[in-house]
Amino acid sequence: MKRLEKNEALCVGCHQCELACAKAYYKVEDPAFACIRVEDGWDDAGEYRSTIHICNQCGKCSEVCNTCVIQPNAKGVYMIKKKECVGCLMCVGFCPEQVMVQSDERTEPSKCIACGICVKVCPTGALSLVDD
Amino acid sequence: MIHICNVPRYQAPSAEELAEMRKHHVLLRSFDYERTPIMRGYTDKILTIDVGEKSAEIADIPAEVKEKFVGGKGYCLRYLWDAVNPQTRWDSPENEIVMSPGPIAGITQYGGTGKTLICTISPLTDIPIDSNVGGFFGPYLKFAGFDALEIKGKSEKDVIVVIDATKGTISFEEAPLEHFDAHVLCEELTALYADDENDKKNIAVAAAGSGADHANIGMLNFSFYDPRRGVTRLKQAGRGGIGRVFRNKKIKALVCKIDGVKANLNNAYDFGLINKTGLKFHREVANNDTKQNDMRGVGTAYSLRTLADYDIVPTHNFKFGDAPGIDEMTAAVFKSDWLTQGAADGCWYGCSMACAKASDHFLLKTGPYKGQRVCVDGPEYESAAGLGPSCGIYNPQEVLEINFYCDTYGLDTISYGTMTAFLMECYERGILNKERTGGLDLTWGNAADDLEMMHQIARGEGFGLIAGLGIHKQKEYFAKMGWGDINEMNDFGMEQKGLEYSEYSAKESLAQQGGYGLTNKGPQHDEAWLIFMDQVNNQIPTFEDKAEALYFYPMFRTWFGLMGLCKLPWNDIVPADNALTDDPKMVPEHVENYLNLYYAMTGNKLDVDGMIRQSERVYNFQRIFNIRMGKGLRANDAIPYRSAGPVFEDEYLWREERYDTQLVELAGYTEEQVKNMSLQERMAATRKYREAQYQTLIDAVYPKRGWTLGGVPTVEHLKELGMDLPELLEVVEPLLAEEGA
Amino acid sequence: MKLNNREYKGFREGLTVQDVIRENSFTWPKLVVKLNRKVIWPEEYENTVIEETDDLEVIHLLGGG
């Protein structure tokens, strides 16, 4: 199965991944349009750290879709058949990591297809693509 | 537990069978039409079909109609009024079935946004009935270019009407080989009109079933294709005999075909606001539903066990309320043994609440489909309670089988359940016996004979013909035959205005007695569900409070029917911080959502007062429509005593302490007096007190609604609403003069 | 003590919100509980002790539309 993997210990919170993802698919450098989400803040131990939310291809989006338009491809990556999608946004609302993107400019949402654009721009190697 | 991933797909009808059916189709007449695009939720077109003449006409919906009647139920009632006269009965050719989805219907981003309202002159009540239904047909009708569809006339032979928006045609066809029962018929027509497997989701079918040919409690099914299971599923416009009218017009089915559903076919004024509101709702369901009602797990049947704890579940025809066998059919039992889990069970796109649960590959044990495995929808709370405990049945398998046959035969589960419970009580009391039922043993809990009775309805034979009449006409028939005393049957026959009660026992809630009794269409809880507010929460203790609730809630809830919305997402899920709001029971954030959806769709701002105003116009119109048809006055709002108090001795004794205490605490007797009263005297005193309470309640409610004490909307009130239409004044003015108002 | 604006007959020392809910078979899944107008969350039911002068509201939210 092809998917994105994270190593939060290496993340420096530069948000390059989010910007690259949004730029590639929505032509804007706005984290709200990225299929990856980095949250910075103080943790319980009093340390400032970044938490990365990625799509791990769990398939919840597919399970809640009553049009059956989100299906895994041969590599195990869940893909949205945009032509058949009714834009109900249930997948976006139910995503456990909240990393699907909805834009009012489009009638369908989008999700991580494990393309690796974020991996390429990550300066520390906190992100990687695996195929297992 | 059965999970959707382990449920095999259903078998489609065979290609040979379909080819044979297609070969026998006869195209009677076809019309081309130009599809009107939707603008801000409306096409402003109505399609009128005459199945007798085989004609189709498209007309503009005038701006005044849109302004005053809004859509959905408002449109249905407006066009039905114009079609009928006071002498029209359900089977008159001029009687119409009018359906309209409403302006918000058809959006895909928020839960419960695919409802269609349907009205006709009912065979049960002789006044307009309104019923709402999910499924595809209503939204597809709008996508095909029509805000409303009115069907009139009577065909000589069975006919199907096909609205094909992909080709721009409306056609009348004969389809003689297809089955009549809805689960097969809808499957066949879906397959026949779809271009291929993937296109099945673009086909909507409306059909009744063989039971609706013979029974006044006949209903209309709307299909929705479930691509995951590979099966055509059904939702029901259950109440009031719409299916009976449909079949009386010899309509076998309506089919609507579209290109496909997309996110903004309604062409909303502010699409972004709809997305935002919908997404917020989905997140709320995702986070809270399992902690609240578990609608996604079991649907509305979640409440069965818990309502029994409050004496609210109708038990043995509403005689009792604690459903003693309910542990055998709790939500947990349905969830673990019967209902498929993990499926996206919405009856319209975007319903994350997903309460349309199903029991998959359910093995039927009786009837024409015995031995087959089918997809059974539900059971919803109303079906489970009415078909189950009310008839003394607590076996989930039996309840599901009865539910399945009701659906495919086109019979309303609520009317069927309440009516069967009435017949069982008649049997218990000797009003019926085996000789009179043609051998049916209608003892409490006898599901086998219950099912046999239903199969007889579908075959149009034996006692089934009597069963199909509904309680009101059964009472008259039993009295005429000298089998039972009409006054006694009036006390325990749970119908009002001719419509069977829905499934909540209201004995301990005066407000709910009004919630059932002071309705337009008859005793259905969709206008006001006040039991908890009244009986348990004690939030509306005075007559004034109850009257306010019986003014506000019916208006608030009518609004859903103008818009094409389902009420469940309003309050079967609530935001996590709802408890902190000023008025948690109203779920203020959800009310805000609805106002936002209305604005986002139409571009018009609305507040709660505006909502109530929109509803009030239609509500009063319907009241006057009832008066015009001969059933809209105070006398018609009387309720069977069973819904207010204990009719029989064992019924009083079941909660003797409660009733005795109330005689002291509420009715003004001393403890000493009550101790010295016989059972009959205490029953009589209870009855006298409760019946007087109901009359006092009416005295408080009518003025609040702008009606006289006789139940007639006043001219001033109509003027204030902008509803002083000449045709309404013509009905009310003579009555007002008579009353001296 | 009052329960939903009525005198509660079952009051005793040490009575908790959880006791009241159990004794009255308040099994409805969506309750809003307020003690003297302050919201009590479900995880606090067991440890919230009611005083004789308290005003307890156990509001059942509607369902079924």
Verbal overview:
- The complex is a heterotrimer of chains A (132), B (741) and C (65).
- In chain A, 20% of the residues lie in helices and 21% in strands.
- Chain A is of the alpha+beta class and 132 residues long.
- Chain A has a single domain, classed as Alpha-Beta Plaits (2-Layer Sandwich).
- The longest helix of chain A has 11 residues.
- Chain A starts with a strand and ends with a strand.
- The mean pLDDT of chain A is 96.
- Chain B is α+β, with helices and mostly antiparallel strands and 741 residues long.
- Helix content of chain B is 41%, strand content 13%.
- In chain B, the strands form 4 sheets. Chain B has a 7-stranded mixed sheet. Chain B has a 6-stranded mixed sheet with strand order 3-2-7-4-5-6. A two-stranded antiparallel sheet of chain B has the order 14-15.
- In chain B, strand 2 and strand 3 form a beta hairpin.
- With 65 residues, chain C is mainly β.
- Chain C has a single domain, classed as Roll (Ubiquitin-like (UB roll)), CATH 3.10.20.30.
- Helix content of chain C is 11%, strand content 28%.
- The relative contact order of chain C is 0.33.
- The model of chain C has no long low-confidence stretch (mean pLDDT 93).
- At the B-C interface, helix 19 and helix 21 of B face strand 3 and strand 5 of C.
* Spatial order of strands in the largest sheet of chain C: 2-1-5-3-4
Low-confidence residue ranges of chain A:
none
The pLDDT mean of chain C sits at 93
Question: Into which percentage range does the β-strand content of chain C fall?
Answer: 25-35%
Total strand count of chain C, please? Answer: 5
Order of helices and strands of chain A: EHEEHEEHHE
What is the straight-line distance between the termini of chain A? 5 Å
The quaternary organization reads as: heterotrimer
CATH-scheme architecture of chain C: Roll
Helical content band of chain A = 10-25%
The level-1 CATH class of chain A: Alpha Beta
The global form of chain A is: globular
Order of helices and strands of chain C: EEHEEE
Structural class of chain A: alpha+beta
Major β-sheet annotation of chain C? 5 strands, mixed
Cα separation of the termini of chain C: 32 Å
- State the major sheet of chain A: 2 strands, antiparallel
